[in-house]
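Training component of the fellowship. As part of building independent skills, the fellow (R.M.) carried out the full modelling exercise for a liganded target. The chosen ligand was pyridoxal-5'-phosphate. The inputs are recorded below so that the supervisory panel can assess the work.
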Amino acid sequence: MNKSGLVYQNGAFISPQEAKVSIFDRGFLYGDSIYEVTLTYKGKPFLVEEHLDRLWHSADGIGLSIQMKREELTRIIHEGARKLGLERQYIRIIITRGIGDLGLDPALGEEQTTLILFKELPALDTALYEKGVTLFTSEVLRNPKKSMDPSVKSGNYLNNVLAIKQAREAGAYDAVMLNAKGYVTESTSANIWMVLGESIITPPLEAGLLGGITRQKVMELGKAQGFDIKEQNFTVDTLKSANEVFITSSTREVLPVTQVDNQVIGLGVPGPKTKELHKHYKTFILNLN
Ligand SMILES: Cc1ncc(COP(=O)(O)O)c(C=O)c1O
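Fellow's submitted model of the complex:
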């Protein structure tokens, strides 16, 4: 077996090189698809129930009724991770509205395409956690909720692709994406947080963002530790005035941010509350395994 990766497609486990999608697949043609990303710790898929809850939420958001039974999907996720057999794996579940004649009408989609990609996930880059990363405020806005709702993890990530392109061209690690009202939503693939005085603040779901599974866990763990955690709208100017900034995502856990645009955050090094929250998150992971 190819140790670098494995794909589940149409009832079989095959190599990533063998996995193919038709040019008539609506996922390819229109981004008419949804997806999820999780990872494994010690070879075990992480927070599968939470990720499948969000997958079903995303399906509802695009009016897709997932053909595969949830129990079957769960079984395949665990089986694939076992088969690949690596401690640290990236797992991407993709469901498209399937192959159909050209045309936007979703009724044209026939049988859904279900793909699960398992591949090796490199260890966290410790240098990033020691130094912190930089963010750049992109001109590309996050969609309003009444457009393609950002709480849906869909195959429509072109705004985010353009935003990270701008950020990378500006030499930054990731972008801050604002909404039409000028409030911070999230980064292109992670949720944004700031420490302001004693409070730890992240934008509310209503700002138009993906309800991160890590965001939710960090919120629960932080509150249980007695941190004052709030969901509040804020502007990028407020973000720049914060004592600490960090981003959260499944594959990056709790990653410190030490610069936003040209503004150094706090003392320019990862802050104490960020580190403490990351420590609690790591303990939570350890206790699950
Ligand atoms: C736009 C966006 N925001 C936030 C996140 C973080 O979500 P999670 O913590 O569930 O990985 C992701 C995940 O990739 C994302 O794509």
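The panel noted the following from the submitted structure. The pocket of pyridoxal-5'-phosphate is lined by residues 37, 186, 189-191, 210, 212-215, 248-250 (CB under 6 Å). The helical segments are 26-30, 48-61, 70-84, 126-131, 158-169, 213-224, 236-240, 272-288.
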